[in-house]
Design brief:
The protein is of the alpha+beta class. The chain is 44% helix and 22% strand. The two termini are 42 Å apart. The structure holds thymidine-5'-triphosphate and magnesium ion.
Length: 410
């Protein structure tokens, strides 16, 4: 009986694009790009055919149009992708009681105690892929390993339609030649620092040793990265919390017309949501905006962030971008405004550059300080300070008595 862990990481291939191809098979084999064409648009994702031209997620649409002039563009249908994501989640739940979703199209499954070794894990992974194909007509890539880090690394190695087993014995041969960016938490800035210190690959980093690594990135990062480089990663798979979304919405007694006021209202909702996220110790990958006009036209729009966040500013930036590009008020006032978040990960996880994002670090510290103030003196005090400031700035009246603030946990 082996006691080592068996962790699966599942990640759908070209997820939004693959769902669109499933819905319209005439798109199969075409360079399909999901995103908004135009000056301010960015690519959400694209089919593997489009990737051959160099098109990538988060690329400005203008660049993608230049690289792939014959690309077929679709704007994306978040509701559909969320529904598919839920259906996938049900399939995952059938394979393990401990499922940790990481984003809309990926999850960790802990099969320890269910699969006795990695080979049994690989058989389960095969069955999981088959089930996803049979039930959802979609393809997934799966990594099987004794740790989360190695499982995630493995799922990416043979995309699309991959199934890779990564035993810890293969760490020297397979992980050490890889660039340091493959280590969880190393983003472009950390990689640059390491490169300057002569460390380009994971192997370089191990050879350099703790002292030099500490010099480059500090003691916490050094210890963390050396452990990962040896294939050690004690993080458990954490079964997901129940909440599927955290949102806050508010109806205004009088419709808002002034774009500045509307954006400030979006900021307030974003900050409220961010506070709830921090209280739960989670970060969200998807931001939603809900707008209802005075004549009861309602929009809900969503966008996926490159990096999960629990910061009000970042949620606000995403919600404001949706407001500016995806809502057509046509002169009507706003009656209801909601900001929501979904696709949670534990705070800190999935962050691009864990060690060298000083601005983000600072923002997080400030947010935490304000959370502490709110805990000590009550949220009203912090909120009221902001409202008083607002009132002074633009001579606005006290809030309308009809206004209602509805934090909701679906
Ligand atoms: P990914 O799993 O990163 O990408 P993918 O599934 O499209 O392609 P693959 O895994 O095969 O490399 O992200 C899942 C979905 O999240 C993706 O289909 C679209 C969305 N997304 C964005 O909207 N913006 C982004 O910047 C990224 C990275 C993803
Ligand atoms: Mg994917």
């Amino acid at each position: 009986m082996s006691w080592s862990r068996v962790v699966l990481h599942v990640d759908m291939d070209a997820f939004y694009a693959a769902v669109e191809v499933r819905e319209d098979p005439s798109l199969a084999g075409k360079p399909l790009i999901i995103g908004h064409k135009g000056r301010r648009g960015v690519v959400s994702t694209c089919s593997y055919e489009a990737r051959r031209f160099g098109v990538r997620s988060a690329m400005p649409s203008l660049t993608a149009m230049r690289l792939c002039p014959d690309g077929v563009w679709l704007p994306g249908r978040m509701d559909l992708y969320v529904a598919v994501s839920r259906a996938l989640r049900e399939i995952f739940d059938g394979f393990s009681p401990v499922v940790e979703p990481l984003s809309i199209d990926e999850a960790f499954l802990d099969l320890t105690g269910i699969a006795r070794d990695l080979d049994a894990g690989a058989r389960a992974a095969r069955a999981l892929k088959d089930r996803i194909r049979a039930e959802q007509r979609l393809s997934a890539s799966v990594g099987v390993a004794p740790t989360k880090f190695l499982a995630k690394l493995a799922s990416d190695l043979e995309k699309p339609d991959g199934l890779v087993v990564f035993p810890v014995e293969e760490v020297p041969a397979r992980l050490w030649p890889m660039p340091v960016q493959k280590l969880w938490g190393v983003g472009p800035k950390s990689a640059e620092k390491l490169e300057r210190a002569g460390m380009r690959t994971v192997g370089d980093l191990l050879r350099a040793g703790e002292a030099r690594l500490t010099e480059a990135l500090g003691p916490a990062a050094a210890a963390h990265l050396l452990a990962l480089a040896r294939g050690e990663d004690p993080r458990p798979v954490v079964a997901s919390r129940e909440a599927k979304s955290i949102s806050e919405e508010r109806t205004y007694g009088e419709d808002l017309f002034d774009p500045d006021l509307i954006e400030r209202a979006i900021l307030e909702r974003a900050e409220g949501v961010a506070r709830q996220l921090r209280r739960e110790g989670i970060a969200a990958r998807t931001v939603h905006l809900k707008v209802r006009t005075g004549d009861f036209d309602t929009w809900t729009r969503a966008s996926t962030l490159a990096t999960p966040t629990s910061l009000g500013e970042e949620i606000f930036a995403a919600a404001r971008a949706l407001f500016r590009t995806r809502i057509e008020l046509s002169g009507r006032g706003v009656r209801l405004l909601g900001v929501g978040t979904s696709h949670f990960v534990p705070e800190g996880e999935g962050q691009l550059d864990l060690f060298t994002e000083p601005a983000r670090d600072r923002a997080t510290r400030i947010a935490r300080a304000s959370d502490a103030l709110a805990r000590k003196f009550g949220e009203e005090v912090v909120t009221k300070a902001r409202l008083v400031r607002r009132k002074r700035e633009d001579g606005e009246d006290e809030e309308s008595p009809e206004a209602s603030s509805l934090p909701s946990l679906e």
